[in-house]
Amino acid sequence: MTKRKATNMEVKKNNRNQIFRFVCGHDKVSNPDISYALKLSLPTVTQNTKELIEKGLIEEVGELESTGGRRAKALSVKKDACFAIGLDITKNHIGLLLTNLTGEILKYDRIVQAYRTEEVYFYAVNEKMEQFLEESGVNREKISGIGISFPGIVDLEKQMITYSHILEVQNLPLAEVSRFFAYPCSFFNDANAGALAEGIRMKEDERFFYLSLSNTVGGAILNESKLQQGKAFRCGEVGHMTIVPDGKLCYCGKKGCLDAYCSAKILSGKMNGKLEQFFEKLKQKDPDAKEVWDQYTSYLAIAVNNIHMVLDCDIILGGYAGGYLEPYIPEIWEKVKKRNTFEEERLFIRACSYKIETAALGAALKVIEDFIALV
Fold it and tell me: In terms of CB atoms within 10 Å, which end of the chain has fewer, N or C?
């Protein structure tokens, strides 16, 4: 098959998008910097940055230090040119987050709101979101959209949430949710959204598995900044892989699922749901907390090793529990190494970078990325 040659218009749009992404990724740059980095001619870069300035997306912010000749004008992205909202829906709470064009978190909040598949629930969520935006003082006309995270299977072909056991949802059309909001809506599985937060702006050749250790366990594969979805949009659902045949009963009704052994509730269960209290007890070397932790990390090591054997990639430990795991990575790694057939010395696990409202952030960042892609 003959490859179609790109039109001049497509080439121009691609160049402008590359240039805009480069400026977004740097504090201050010059036209010569962009030209050198992207291997584009200086006239091409200059013309495109001029157009981006006219569109109100970047701006001149003085001059850069001289390297021996005339000082180059410094360019920077206009952070307030676009905003995105992240909305994380869980069984008992909603997470709200606001970010600007550079992905900076401007405001976030977590509000108690028990989920119900009823109009009154979504009206209440929209009301709380509007109040959240009012408090932020953001220009509503610059909001590009809402990224909405759900703990369930989000089928983008059928345009519905096909299954969420935790929310008791089956075949909920996305349009039945988006109609309650005044902005365009994009929908994500919660683990997928967490993975996007960690990796959507990584290097293009990066690949990792995101293991979400929240009140339910999930996972996602991010490859070259793109999610691997699977045929039925269930890729990465490791929470329901069996790690103990006929073991503990999982909320899904099956026995021995990873979720039954490694959800955040295993740690917070004896602390009235307060995960931070568990880790405080663990830090104080409380014997009961230590016993729970040893069992938890032993099962976690089995899961991590199994995932790595199948995918041969780095694994990021995220979700509610993941936000506390950074000091304990060496301990977990030792347990993983004992199970690894190849005795790998390279550390392939790490704790998540984002500790607060990760799913909401990832959903919002995807909205921002979609805006950038259309520039």
Answer: N
d(C-alpha 100, C-alpha 80), whole Å: 6
Burial of 43 (0-12, 13-18, 19+ CB in 10 A): exposed
Mean pLDDT by 10 residues, the chain (375 residues): 68 89 90 94 95 93 76 92 96 95 94 94 97 96 96 94 93 96 96 92 82 95 89 92 96 95 94 92 95 97 96 95 96 94 86 91 94 88
Phi-psi group of 285: left, alpha or beta (phi > 0 → left; psi -120 to 50 → alpha; rest → beta): left
